[in-house]
What does this fold into?
Amino acid sequence: MKIVQKLVTLKAKPRGFHLITHEILEHLPELREFEAGTAHLFLMHTSASLTINENADPSVRHDFLAFTDRLVPENEPYYTHTLEGSEDMPAHIKSSLYGNFLVIPINNGQFVFGTWQGIYLCEHRDFAGNRKVYITLMGV
It folds into this structure.
């Protein structure tokens, strides 16, 4: 069994749902060495998240943002964690709703996705910095 671990830093992005599949793959030339296995991606932040969804039509990412911002609005009077701005507590809630890790199968040196699937970075802050993703590849 082979194991590769690395820390990938993603460039800062504005609030929104960003397709990052190619950005992740650019950092993983070792992926080609795996016949079969799994990739574990862990986002090391509490105000952003990861998910897999539609990779072809950008309107899907727009609709995700519109829905998520409506589901978890800012400036609610019951938020007490407000020191870092009005989007901070909602960003933490959104991060927990979508999650901070993904497990993706590997086959013949590639991630296994369904048709039209890609990896999203869900950025829930207005002015976030770079985001770090710890990636573990395991397999043969």
